[in-house]
Amino acid sequence: MELYVSEFSKYVIALLITLYTYECFAVFRYEEEGERSGIYTRQNLLMFALHFSCFLVICFETGDITYLFFYAFQQIVLYAVIVLYRMLYPGSNRLVVNNMCMLLAIGFCILTRLDMNKAIKQFIIASGSLVIALVIPFFVHKFKFLKKLKWVYVIVGILALSVVMILGQTTYGSKLSYSIAGITFQPSEFVKILFVFYVASALYESHGFFEVFTTAVAAGAHVIVLVISKDLGSALIFFVVYVLMVFVASQNYFYLLAGIFGGAGAAYIAYSVFAHVQVRVQAWKDPWSVIDSAGYQITQSLFAISSGGWFGLGLCKGTPEAIPFVEADFIFSAIAEEFGIIFAVCLILICVSCFIMFMNISVQLNDKFYQLTAFGLGITYIFQVFLTIGGGTKFIPLTGVTLPFISYGGSSVLTTLIMFAVIEGLCMIRLDEKEQLRLARARKKKKRSALAGGGHRTGKDALAEDDLQEAAMSAGDIIEYKE
Amino acid sequence: MNTKNNNIKNHNSKNNNLRNSNSKNQNSYKKKKKKNSEIMVITWMFTLLFLSLAGYITYYSVTHQQELINNSYNGRQQILIAKNTRGRILASDGNVLAQTVLDDEGNEKRVYPYQNLFSHVVGYAVNGRMGVEAQANYYLINSNAPLSQKAALDVSGEKYPGDDVYTTLDVNLQEVASKALGVYQGAVVVTEPGTGRILAMVSKPDFNPEQIADMWDELIADDESSILLNRASQGLYPPGSTFKIVTALEYIRENPDAFQNYHYTCNGTITRGESRIQCYHGSVHGGVDFKRSFAKSCNTSFANIGLSLDRDAFGQTLDLLLFNQKLPVAFQSNVSRVDVSEDTSDSDMMQVSIGQGTTSITPLLLNMITCAIANEGILMKPYLIDYVQNSAGNKVKSFTPDSYGKLMEESEALAIKELMRDVVEEGTASKLKGLSYTAAGKTGSAEYGTVKGESHAWFTGFAPCEAPEVCVTVIIEGAGAGGDYAVPIAKRIFDAYFGL
Lengths: 483, 500
Prior knowledge:
- Chain A: It comes from Parablautia intestinalis.
- The structure holds two protein chains of two kinds.
- By secondary structure, chain A is mainly alpha-helical.
- Helix content of chain A is 76%, strand content 1%.
- Chain A has a domain at 434-482.
- A two-stranded antiparallel ribbon of chain A has the order 1-2.
- Among the domains of chain B are: 2-69, no CATH class; 233-385 and 397-497, Beta-lactamase, CATH 3.40.710.10.
- Chain B has a six-stranded mixed sheet, with no helix packed on it. A five-stranded antiparallel sheet of chain B has the order 8-7-19-18-17, with helices on both faces.
- Chain B has 18 helices and 19 strands.
- In chain B, a hairpin with a 2-residue loop joins β10 and β11.
- The interface between A and B is large, with 61 and 52 residues.
C-alpha cells in the first residue's frame, strides 16, 4: 500500500505542479484581475491538493500520522493569508499571493522531510512574518512620504551592514549574522529592501550625472562592506540591482554597459585578490578535482539533482541530507532529487512568473518612484533565485544565498514576504492611478462638451487633452486633479 | 514564454492606447513606450537566462545520471545495492553469463557459469568493477520490477530483483575464439560490420571472476602478464603490416586515378640516410605493382609509398581513423597512438608506413577500421549491451546500432576491399583460400622489443567478401608470422560463424 501511494503520488504531484505552473502564465492572457479570478481559484485548489499529497506521502513513508496535524496548521495559515488579502486589499494581485503561498507550502513540505524541528521553526517564523507583512501594503499605499526618505534608507542600511561586519567578525568569524535575544538576524537580507527604496527615491526625480554619482558612492559602500564580510552573494545582488535600476531610471544604455564592464573588472580584481573567491571559482570549473574539499558540496548537490530523473525518487526516498547545508543553500537540489526534474523546472517557472508579474506592475505604474521600486524589488528577487539555483547546479559559481520562501532561514522568509507585500501595495497605487486618470478624463470631457456644445473636436481641444496626458503621467500631478 | 512577454507588451501598449484613444498624438505614445522599453529588455533578459538555466539543469541531470551514480562519493549507489539484488548479465541467446545467487547461509554470491571464458568482457563486480559489470552497473543495481512484485517482496522482506542486461555476445563464437587462442597470450575481437554488435571479445591470459577477491593481491602484484588488462580493447600493440591498410588508403586518396599504375622493384631493402627497411624474413619480391605490394606485404615497396605521401594530409587521415583519441565506445578502451605530421623525418615515415616505430594500436581500433572497409566506409559504433529487461520480461531500455560516420569514401573502401581480397587469393592469407565462403583480410607480423625476429602475429579481415557479415581481428603475442599463426585462428572463427 505504502509503495503504491508513494509511486502514484510522484505522478500526481508532477501533474499538479505542471497545471499550476500553466495557470501562472495563463493569467497573462487577461488584462484585468477580474477576468483572472477563475484561474486564481483553480490555482488555489491545485496548491491545496499538492500540499496535501506531499504530507500524505510523508505520513505513509514515516508511518507517523502526526504530520497531518502539522499540515493542518499550515493549511489554515495559508488559507487565511489568501482570504485576508482578498478581504483587506481587494485591489491586490492574486497571482503574487498565490505564488507566495505555493512556494511557502513547497518549502514546508521539503523542510518537514529534511528536518522536522527546522520546519516547525520555519513555520512559526513564516506565520509571524505573514502577519507583519499583512499591514505593509497599507503603509505603502497610504504613506506618500516614503519617496522622501532617501537618507534614512542609506544610513540605516550601511549602519546595519557595518554592525554585522564588526560584531559578526568578533563573534562569529566570517558569519553574516548577529543574535538579539536568541533570535538570529541576517541584516543583509533586510537591507536589500532599504537599498531598493534608496535608489528609487534618489533617482525618481532626476537621473543626471550628479545623482548617478552619489548613488554609485552609496551603492559602492554597501557592496564593499558586504565584500569585507565575505557575503559575496549579497554584494553581487546589490551591485546588479543598482546597475539595472540606474539603467531603467536613466533610459541610458551607456550606464548598462558601464555597469557590465565595471562589474567584470571588479569581479576580476576580487578573483585576483581574495583566495576564497578563487576557491569558489575553482570548485565551479572543476569540482571533481577537489571533491574532498571545496568541491564536496557542489558535487553532492549534482549527485542529488541527477539521481531524481523526471519524476523524482519520491519524498523521503532519496538522500538529500548528504549535501551539507541542504536546507538553506541547496534546497533546490533536494527538491530536484525527491520531486524530480519536471517539478524543479516548474518551480523555476513559478519564480519567473512572479518576476514577470512584478515587471508588469512596474511597467504600468506612472509614478517613477513606485515604478523603480517595483522594478528593483523584482530584480532583487529574481537575481537571488538565479544565484542560488544556478550556484547549486554548477551553472555559475556558488555564492551561498537562499532560495526565497523555500530555504530555511527566518530573515530570508521575512524579507521576501515584505518584498511581496510592498508589491501588493504598489498594485493598489497603480489602481489609484488608473482611477485618477479615468476621473480626470471624464471631468475634462464634461468641461469640453460644455464649452463646445458637443460640437466637433477642434485642434485646440486635442492639444488640451495632450496636456492632460502629460500631466496624468505623473502621480504627483494627478493629486492636483483630485482637489 | 513568447506569449507571456507579448502579453506584457500588449498590456503596456493597450494602456498607452487607452490614454491615446481620443487624441492621436503619436509623440506622446512614443514617449510613453520608450519610457518602459528598458524594463521590457531586462524582463526578456532574465526570462531567457532562466530558460537556459532550466534547459541546462534538465540536460545535465539526464545526461549525467549514470555517470554520477557510479561515483564512489555518491552514497546513493549503496542504497540501491542494499535495496535490489544485482541483475543478471546474459548472452544474446539468453545464456546466463553472470548472476547473483544466495548461498546456504543466505549471503549473496556472484556466479559466472562460464568461469574464465568471459573474464574480461563481462568482468567482475568486487574489488572495483570491470567489463559489462562496470559499464552496465547502473542498470544492474536498479530495479524496474512491476509494482505488484515489489509490493509482494516488501511483505516478505526480500530485495527487489535488479534489471537484467542482455549483451550482444555469442557463447559459441567466444568459446571457439578462446580455444583457438589456446595457451597463447593475445586477443580476438569479432563484430558485425553492418551493426557494430560485438559477438566475441577474448583476451588471454584470462582469470576466473568468481575468485577475483581471493586472487586479488596476486593479480595486482603480477606486472609481467597484466592479466586484468582487456587486451582486446586496451592492449596497445605495434600494428606491423596490418597498418599497410591505412598507408594504402592514404595513397589511394592522394592518387585516386593513378594508384593502379604504381610500380616498384623490390630488392629486399630500402635505405634513406641512416635507416634501412627490410622485407620480412629477408624476402625479395622483385617487380611489384600496388596490388602485389599489398598482397605480399612488401615492406620496401610500402616504405617507398610512404615517402611519397603528403605527411600533413596523412596525419589528418590518421585522426579521421580515430588514432590519438578516445574511441566512440561505452566500455573501457585505450587510445591508439601514431605520430605523423609535416615535421616527420624520412626515416620515421618509412617506419610508420609499415606499422613499426612508435605507432601503437588496440585490436579494437583495427577491427573498427576493418569494419568500415567492409561496410562501404561507414563505421558503426561497436557495442556490447543490446537491451535491458526487468524481472517481468519487459524491455526497459534498448540500444540500437548507431553510426559513427564515414571513415572513408565508398570508392576507397571498395579499392581496399579488393586489395584485401587479393591477400587471401594470392598473398599472405592463402590459408583462407578456396573455402565455401569468400574471406578478405590483411596479415601482420609486428616486430617488438629489441630481439630481431620476435613478432606478434596479426590478422584482420571479414567474410563473405560480397556482403560482409562478420569481421574478425586476431593478435597472438610473440607467435611469429601472421599468415602462419593468426590466419588459422581467424579461419576457425569464420567456420564457426558460418556453421561449418
